[in-house]
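Allow me, if you will, to draw on your knowledge of protein folds for a short while. The matter concerns a single protein, recorded as an amino acid sequence and a row of backbone structure tokens. Could you please explain, in whatever detail you think fit, how the structure tokens follow from the sequence? I remain grateful for any guidance, and I place the record below:

…
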Amino acid sequence: MDIQPGWLWMILAVALAAAELALPGVYLVWFAAAAAVAGLTTLIFEPSATAQFLVFAAGAVVAVIAGRSWYVANPIESSDPLLNDRVARLIGRTVIVETAIAGGEGRVQVGDGAWSARGPDAPAGARMRVVGVDDGVLIVEAEPALPPA
């Protein structure tokens, strides 16, 4: 049984689209679109093998650029935008000084780990609030005093 090259391109397009569904990310769909364009072009015009691959390559470049442009213009909204930004999630948290902050530098305890910190001098055991991050170093300030009860 001899399958026409155009149908082989279409089978490749379906296989890439199926792989896109099975694998995480939006990557293979652009190559599936390029394979479909190459398949349709081959079925209609019957170009040489070299021309088929050039159509596929050009289609892939165009599809990737168009897809990327679309995603930049239409970012996906998230219910938790800081989900994968561990450091940004620390801003606003209260931390305990582990190694005294002297000369503006020390270490603070965050959960079960310790982070380098910059801020006003504070003794070990003092409570501080994370107000920012600079190159992986937490910027802290003194925790406001609680009003008397």
